[in-house]
Amino acid sequence: MPEYWVSDINKAEEGVAQLEWAERNMPVLMSLRKKYSDEKPLRGAKIAACLHVTKETGVLVRTLKAWGAEVYLAASNPLSTQDDIAAALATEGVCVFAKKGESEKEYFWAIEKVASIHPDIVIDDGADLHSLLHEKHPEMLNKIKGGAEETTTGVVRLRALEKEKKLGYPVFAVNDAMTKQMFDNRYGTGQSTIDGLLRATNILISGKTIVVAGYGWVGRGIAARARGMGAEVIITEVDPVKALEAVMDGYRVMKMEEAAKIGDVFITATGDKDVITWKHMEKMKDGAILANSGHFNVEVSVKDLEENSISSRELRRYMKEYKMKNGKVLYLLAEGRLLNLVAAEGHPSEVMDMSFANQALIAKKVWTEPRLEPKVYKVPLDIDQNIAMLKLKSMGIEIDELTPEQKEYLDSWKLD
């Protein structure tokens, strides 16, 4: 048995059943696993991964192991681990260090355990593992052949490292792949955030005013799903182009200070801190609900809630009621952490199929090809398009192909 740290190893049987269900709904990743299992393209590679420990992540980990890798896994959020999955992976030879409800100390201890293996490949979601390696283990950086980053927040952090010329190994921005961003961020987060909102509150969305902070792919997805269920949706933005897009998409756009007065539910999706602070909270309706779908718990100021309340209590699982000094009551969901992964199960397997196919193929590329210069790289277009074609094939959909004459026409500058 490998070394592991999980909540209850006896939950492994439940986890195996969940993994089988996810595999049934992840045909792209499963076809890739089968294609390369005999070849073992990751033979000899030690992979350190910091990801949400969900059934979909479990399918990725099983694939990396089937390709010959040794995998060490920590959670990328203290509350997102599915304990049955962690237990199942531990029984299958994965060194997994993850429990739902980790303290901050335990969270970083687990990431340190994964970092300490002197990895060859680093797969991260949020860049906590990448950051820890750069801050605490600079001696390891030259050995690391490359890495990947799953989410917008992590890519921002890595580009900051690159800008300061401190990035120690090449990293592929998996988040920015079209088959990740357009589907995982938009359709996956849109559906799973609403799922988390409903599980935490059981409110009727129809007729509510829902304020979505941020109109990137995640914000677009949440806004579309909320509107589709009958909500009036307001968008807040700092980017004029995205704000204009939201207007053209038919949403009301205004400053958060104005939206605060009329919103029933507030969902942040910006990747930045202090999106909702006391200056907004004090203007909110009695009974307003606050939630976050950004990676870190910094978008809604929990500190401001606590400092301006006279009491608080857990009213429902993943819902905390704050009685404010101004006489109003506000509700915070999932401790201000990722609503979709804390109160629900994260993204549906069908979209994570494409995201994790990107992760697997990037790991293969990193390990089998010469080491690149330490930079943040885009996922190659051929990988993106191959994943899209595999997904279409799994859905029984065929598309047209360009004829040689059409290709020649598109490549030509001549008038005829």
UniProtKB/TrEMBL annotation:
Reaction(s) the record says it catalyses: S-adenosyl-L-homocysteine + H2O = L-homocysteine + adenosine
MF-aspect GO terms: adenosylhomocysteinase activity
Pathway assigned to this chain's UniProt record: Amino-acid biosynthesis; L-homocysteine biosynthesis; L-homocysteine from S-adenosyl-L-homocysteine: step 1/1
Gene3D superfamilies listed in its UniProt record: Adenosylhomocysteinase-like, NAD(P)-binding Rossmann-like Domain
PROSITE patterns membership: ADOHCYASE_2 (PS00739)
GO cellular component: cytosol
Predominant subcellular localization, coarse grouping: cytoplasm
Co-factor remark: Binds 1 NAD(+) per subunit.
One of the GO biological process terms: one-carbon metabolic process
Domain of life: Archaea
EC number: 3.13.2.1
InterPro entries from the UniProt entry: Adenosylhomocyst_ase-like_sf, Adenosylhomocysteinase-like, Ado_hCys_hydrolase_NAD-bd, NAD(P)-bd_dom_sf, S-Ado-L-homoCys_hydrolase_CS
Cited CDD domains: SAHH (cd00401)
Cofactor or coenzyme needed: NAD(+)
Positions of the S-adenosyl-L-homocysteine hydrolase NAD binding domain: 185-346
Record keywords: Cytoplasm, Hydrolase, NAD, One-carbon metabolism
Major enzyme class: hydrolase
Chain positions recorded as substrate binding sites: 54, 125, 150, 180, 184
Binding residue positions for NAD(+): 151-153, 185, 214-221, 237, 293-295, 340, 347
Subcellular location: Cytoplasm
Function: May play a key role in the regulation of the intracellular concentration of adenosylhomocysteine.
Similarity annotation: Belongs to the adenosylhomocysteinase family.
Name of the protein described by the UniProt record: Adenosylhomocysteinase
